[in-house]
Amino acid sequence: MTSDWKKALKFDFVTYKGDVNNLTSDATKWELLKSEADNAHLFYAEPLDNTTLTKLGFTKLPTALYFAQMADGGGYATQVILANPGETQVSVTLDLFTSKGSPLTATVNGVANSSFSYTIKARGSLFLKTSGTAAQVSTGWVRVQADGLLGGSLIYANQTGGKVVAEADLDPSIPAQEFCFTVDTRQGYYSGLAMVNPTSAPLDIRYALYDAAGSLKGQSSQTLGAMQHAARLLGEIFPGQNLTDFSGMVTAVSSGGSIAATTLRFDAAVDTLASIPVITGVPIAKVPTAAQASTP
């Protein structure tokens, strides 16, 4: 909290003149008392339930989940698991997209389409899986939209003869304009990034590569089109860099909109497969100038 919080922390103080047992969004029932800093009160709040929100004129909060990597066919299959821990049924739409942002048709639970609609009962769950039977692999991303609060995860697996060789579990990616992630190519591992632009306009992304000691090793940029997806290895993001047995960090900053991203980590045989969420919500330091970068 800032040192001048007594002046900076400003609240609108209102009173409700209607029946407290029959809340309404009618503006005539609410009266503004003052709008100012006030250090003479202790503030207590508790979350509003769906019933109270509805009385106040709010509809159920929508949910959008973004999974930045999926694969189907060529030995891969993807499973999406959704959970509704609430007390009311939710309606869900699952959309599959190619890397170019167009609809991706796949067979999910025996039905071939690119968009699927379901309902999930209160405290219910839903397990959806692509067939993985196509000869060629198709990659892209998944969007889940719901008319209420919803949780979920995605698993994509490498299979041989119907047997899972390796699989990775993805949490929903939190869209952010800046994020970072660690990379480690030691012991023959590959590090990479899968990302989605869920917005309606192209986004420019700037990358900076640092070694484990914090020294700047390289910079690059790319443009990711609206609704498009890209999966790139570390060497593709920073071509020309010697990244053998490298460990460090990459920062990414997007201009004009948020990116949903997750990391990729696997070995040459893809019998070890992992995906680690990128780090969001932490301020990204500015890339140092050439003079700063060369200072010990």
Q: Which key features would you list for this structure?
A:
296 residues, mainly beta, Hypothetical Protein Tm1070, Chain: A, 3 domains, four-stranded antiparallel β-sheet
Strand order of the largest sheet: 3-10-5-8
Examine the coordinates and then state which fold CATH places here, giving the name of the CATH topology of the largest domain. Answer: Jelly Rolls
**Do you know the CATH architecture of the largest domain?**
Sandwich
Proportion in helices: under 10%
Q: What is the CATH class designation of the largest domain?
A: Mainly Beta
User: The biggest beta sheet, please?
Assistant: 4 strands, antiparallel
Topology at a glance:
Elements: H1 5-8, E1 10-16, E2 30-37, H2 50-55, E3 63-72, E4 76-83, E5 90-98, E6 106-108, E7 111-113, E8 115-120, E9 125-129, E10 138-146, E11 151-160, E12 163-170, E13 178-184, E14 190-196, E15 203-211, E16 216-224, E17 229-233, H3 234-237, E18 247-255, E19 260-266, E20 273-274, H4 290-293
Antiparallel strand pairs: 1-2, 3-10, 4-9, 4-11, 5-8, 5-10, 6-7, 11-12, 13-18, 14-17, 14-19, 15-16, 15-18, 19-20
